[in-house]
Amino acid sequence: MNRLSGYGRVLFACVLVAFLARADAAAPAAAAKKEIGVEILLDTDETVLGQEFEYPAGRARITTVLLTVPPHGTIPFHHHPVPLMGYIIQGELAVEYPDVGVIHYRAGDAFVEAFDTPHSGFNAGRGVVKILAVYAGAEGVPNSVDGE
Question: Which residues are the signal sequence here (predicted)?
Answer without folding.
Answer: 1-23
